[in-house]
Automatic annotation (TrEMBL), chain A:
This is ABC-2 type transport system ATP-binding protein. Residues 5-237 form the ABC transporter domain. InterPro entries: AAA+_ATPase, ABC_transporter-like_ATP-bd, ABC_transporter-like_CS, P-loop_NTPase. The keyword ATP-binding applies. The lineage of its organism: Bacteria, Pseudomonadati, Bacteroidota, Flavobacteriia, Flavobacteriales.
From TrEMBL, chain B:
Belongs to the ABC-2 integral membrane protein family. GO terms for cellular component: plasma membrane. The chain crosses the membrane at residues 14-34, 223-243, 270-291, 303-327, 339-359, 393-414. It is a multi-pass membrane protein. PROSITE patterns: ABC_TM2. It comes from Flavobacterium fluvii. The keyword Endoplasmic reticulum does not apply. This is ABC-2 type transport system permease protein. The lineage of its organism: Bacteria, Pseudomonadati, Bacteroidota, Flavobacteriia, Flavobacteriales.
């Protein structure tokens, strides 16, 4: 299959930083995949996703999304991607419905279509009865679910998720994963970062392990486990590739 | 939808709404009452001043009568039923219990009359009307007299100057009258009489519209200035709104959707411009309808409301541009809120909201020219007090709009540059 994301020798060095956050990084993601981007803190995952979402520009190298580049077609790319940031990117004093109406309208959605899509998504994630409650009254798990809906209202071809299940209860996590699987089944390619390795092992069709701004391995979870000596699960693979050294950095 | 979202956010923020609509009204009412009473004494409260009369003569009686008749002062000659002395008055004023003490020196009336007599005699002698030699030999030396003024150190210079000027004028009038009276006496039998009323008088010629004089009052001066000042405080909620989006994470969502940052900012501009105009009309309404009930003159817009609205609209643009720039550059609310408030006060100060620009030093006058608040204030005065046309205010409103364009462009470029880090 054609790669939907093609990254070639991508590097990023922040101003005043001593080292590269991403260094000569190449990767391709095939359409229809649930692609897990795994790595310890400071590995370069958020930098990579930020560049792919158009939030920051690379220092060198290039990438294309659906054969489009930000230099030539920034708005075309933004129309086909969805972004679910790690923070609750919602207005706390607005209701769930008001937030979703606003973010949906930013993609040109309006009227009944938008209203129906919001109701359908809220219903799927068990939030319909809270549609008109303010976000500030929601629990962490509820906010995560609304945060997810805000990123997929326009049916994106590619969905970027930065730690979508961090800090939520088991029920919310299960609802989010089910919803994402449903989206993927309907044709959305998912790029996902997480520290929950067992979740990634079950959820992802393909995984890239990155560290110190470089790609260490890329394959299916099964192949990664099989190809690593004494590995029984993805966590063993992860430790084997990235080591046990703590990654505290300021 | 962007505009609607901004209104929803404001509606749900009670503190923000109070800042936007109630506080400007409170500010306008409070400042106008205070400033108006300084000059007009709307509250009929007079300033008590201490008068120490060591003269007990004609001059001190005239000073007392003049001060007592004034609409601004009331004369105090005793404290706790004790007659005033210079040291008691000095202490009371320097402790801030009173703002002013006037000390009339001993024998002022007698010595003034003696000095005038000497001078008049000299003149009449020179004219050959008396025996010069005989008179000159008898002349005693009369020393110059000094009326002392003690001011409370907290009193403003403008108040001091006004008081000193009126006391000086009062003393001059007394001297002049005494000179005339002495001449009259010297010259004889009552056939010669001097008209003692001032020959030169002043008449202020004020602009006229439709044969009606436009007489500015303190409200006509204060309302535009403080309305503008209050409108500029929109910088605070707007910059905080932008900073909050960055810290909440909604900024990431806004940057990753197909709508450009300039469209998002345009949505904010429209929403906050509507708020600015509501603020403006509320303040004008208060000045027209509520002020008369508070003992203040009503704001007379005399068919200028449309032109005033144009000025308010462009002043709103300038304030919003500043708010957008501040919100874009600031990283936290702790940065944007104090900086926003302080900078608005600085812009107001250099813009002539408190002290008229013409009263500033040359250097400050040049700096004042660069304050958007000064452009807005001049445009308001052109419309309201100078009966100016759209053409007259065109330079000022163009500058206000240019300020909006420049600040917004810098904000957009700064945001773009930040994304290349």
């Amino acid at each position: 299959m054609q790669p939907i994301i093609q990254i070639t020798k991508l590097s990023k060095k922040y101003k005043d930083a001593e080292t590269y956050s991403l260094n000569d990084f190449s990767l391709s993601v095939t359409e229809g995949q649930i692609f897990g981007l795994l790595g310890p803190n400071g590995a370069g995952k958020t930098t990579l996703i930020s560049m792919l979402c158009g939030l920051i520009k690379p220092t060198s190298g290039s990438f294309s999304i659906h054969n489009l580049t930000y230099a030539d077609n920034p708005n075309e790319i933004k129309k086909i991607i969805g972004v679910v940031p790690q923070e609750y990117a919602l207005y706390p004093t607005l209701t769930a419905r008001e937030n979703l109406m606003y973010f949906g309208s930013m993609y040109g959605l309006k009227g009944e279509n938008l209203k129906e899509k919001i109701i359908e998504s809220l219903d799927f994630l068990g939030l319909l009865k809270f549609a008109d409650k303010r976000i500030e009254t929601f629990s962490g798990g509820m906010k995560r679910r609304v945060n997810l809906i805000a990123g997929i209202l326009h049916n994106p071809k590619i969905l970027f998720l930065d730690e979508p299940t961090v800090g939520v209860d088991v029920q919310s996590k299960s609802a989010i994963i089910d919803y994402l699987k449903q989206l993927n089944k309907n044709g959305t390619t998912i790029i996902y970062t997480s520290h929950h390795l067992s979740e990634a092992e079950d959820f992802c069709t393909d995984i890239a392990i990155i560290d110190r701004g470089q790609l260490y391995a890329q394959d299916t979870p099964e192949n990664l486990i099989r190809s690593t000596a004494n590995a029984n699960n993805l966590e063993d693979v992860f430790i084997s590739l990235t080591g046990k050294e703590l990654r505290d950095d300021i | 939808m962007s505009v609607y979202k901004e209104f929803l956010l404001l509606k749900r923020d009670l503190g923000g709404l109070l800042t936007l609509f109630v506080m400007p009204l409170v500010l306008l009412i409070a400042v106008t009452i205070i400033q108006d009473s300084t000059f007009v004494s709307a509250s009929k409260a007079k300033i008590p001043i201490l008068l120490v009369d060591n003269d007990n003569g004609k001059v001190s009686k005239t000073v007392y009568d003049n001060l007592q008749q004034s609409t601004i002062f009331t004369v105090v000659t005793k404290i706790d039923n004790e007659p005033l002395t210079e040291s008691i008055a000095k202490e009371a004023v320097f402790k801030g219990k009173y703002q002013l003490a006037i000390i009339i020196p001993e024998k002022l009336s007698v010595d003034l009359q003696a000095k005038i007599d000497q001078n008049v005699e000299k003149i009449t002698s020179n004219l050959g009307m008396t025996d010069t030699l005989a008179k000159t030999q008898k002349t005693n030396i009369v020393n110059q007299k000094e009326v002392k003024l003690y001011f409370d150190p907290a009193v403003q210079m403008s108040f001091k100057n006004a008081v000193m000027s009126s006391v000086d004028k009062m003393i001059s009038q007394i001297e002049t009258k005494s000179i005339y009276a002495t001449f009259q006496e010297q010259l004889g039998d009552g056939d010669v009489s001097f008209e003692q009323k001032s020959f030169i008088s002043f008449k202020e010629i004020v602009p006229r519209v439709n044969d009606e004089e436009i007489i500015p009052n303190s409200v006509q001066h204060n309302v535009p200035a403080w309305t503008l000042f209050a409108m500029f405080f929109i910088v605070l909620p707007l910059s905080i709104n932008i900073v909050k989006e960055k810290t909440q994470g909604t900024f990431v969502r806004l940057r990753t959707n197909p709508v450009s940052n300039s469209i998002v900012l345009a949505g904010k501009t429209v929403a906050y411009l509507i708020i600015c105009m509501i603020q403006f009309y509320m303040m004008v309404a208060v000045a027209i309808f509520l002020f008369p009930h508070l003992g203040l003159p009503s704001l007379n817009v005399q068919g200028h409301l449309l032109m005033m609205s144009v000025v308010a609209l462009f002043a709103g643009f300038a304030a919003i541009g500043f708010g957008i720039l501040l919100g874009t550059i600031a990283k936290t609310q702790e940065q944007s809120a104090p900086f926003g408030a302080t900078s608005v006060i600085i812009l107001a100060a250099i813009g002539g909201v408190w002290v008229p620009v013409f009263a500033m030093s040359k250097a400050m006058q040049i700096i004042a020219e660069s304050s958007p608040m000064n452009w807005g204030l001049n445009a308001f005065y052109d419309v309201l007090l100078r009966n100016g046309s759209l053409l007259d205010i065109l330079p000022e409103i163009s500058l206000l709009f240019l300020f909006f364009i420049i600040t917004t462009t810098i904000a957009l470029l700064y945001d773009k540059k930040k994304r290349t880090v």
